[in-house]
Amino acid sequence: MQLFEEDDGNPAMDERTRRKRRTATDAARPPITLADLRIFDKQQHLVPLQLNRAQRHLLDHLTGRDLVLKARQLGISTAVQAWLFMTALNQTARIGTLAHDKDTTQKLRDMAQTFYDELAEDKQPRRSANTATRTQYADTKSIVYFGTAGNPRGGRGGTYSHVHGSEVAFWKDARRVLAGLLQGVPQDGSIILESTPNGAQGWFYEQVMSALEGNSVWSVHFFPWWWDEGYRVMSDEWKVMSGEWIQQLSDDERQLVEKHGLDAAQIAWRRQKQLELGELFAQEYPEDPYSAFLKGGDRYFRLSAEMFSAPAALYRMGHRYVAGLDFGQSHDYTVCSVLDVTTREQVDLLRLRQRSWADMRRAIVDLCLKWGISTLVAESNSMGGANIEALNAELGVAGCPTAIVPFQTTHSSKSSIIAELRLSLEEGGLKLLPDPAQRHELEVFTSRQTATGAWQLTAPDGEHDDCVMALALAWHAAGSGSLVIFSA
What we know:
The protein has 488 residues and is of the alpha/beta class.
């Protein structure tokens, strides 16, 4: 059925008539959905787009300010570009996509072109412009830009409703580029910045860490390697069907199996990749958002997965429990770390921030009652002294016999207890809970020589060491027989 006469170029046909015809044609065009899109898969076969687990989860949980930390080749960029393509076709939008290099920019541009080219002819929307860097859709008035983040002034001067930043951790000057770009996105706009890890530095790393601490406008979406069902390999070494492979697991492998339900084929793939990549495995195929960012060579602690294998535990009669307490309230955390001296295992970790001193002390009293803590070594610097005095009184009211040992932190005393902690981890068999924040603090904790020649033990700028200090104080408490006990 022919709805309209052909436009034969008759000069009598005015622009209003042409506009009416285009509007009627657009109204008759079938709606476009994600199911209409086609992509090139990893084997470069043109196939219908079918969202995988990670892609579906991200698109279902976007907040408008989203940081995506991912393993390699999970298809996150593809999902974001497909979503933006559909956005441009269904509403008026001004969309900007920036990648870290020209090759990736071109790849994303080609992907959008493939989405368009592979649409059924009756579903293809009209484009009023289509260049290497810009596409404009005539009906929705949407404009889509593609660029490379190599120019620190890239993105300035424009207002965008949607922004996609790809591999942001690898941008040369992400801080300056994003300072200009993000100011042009309204509050109800959408910003998606995704990347694989690239070391413990830079804008992307800092923002992810702040968001994980709950101190950011950004939401973090973390996708470890096992979200890709293709990351598996069968091993003839294991008798998988009989279940004997479970007996051959290391401590960190067993934790992954128990916590995330990994199977033998996934563990075999992991071992193979670890042999190929060595230390880089944690960066290319991350397993938690903290250890994903490889740390520099001045790390103080030499850590292994086995160190973080303390099991969830219950109170046991006859065991001796001690704790270390590091006070903090606004920027820093108040952390209380509990050790079972009998088994040399960490059994609890309390981490609080932005609560009143009274609330935090109540939580500490509850922790002491829960574990029957015999000795609590607490830092007495700054507000520590007043809080120790108040905490001692509150323990007495609660009928808790915990003895508090004040600890004055100086350069010398801190160096001493941190050295004791390192020895207990590396040679003493102390096992810790697999808490991501604690592990991250231990991983980034540094030893640096100052201009005077003295060695400084501390967290890098912008990082925390509250868990490290609480743990060191707890281990100090384990040998507290000769310490002076606080008395009110």
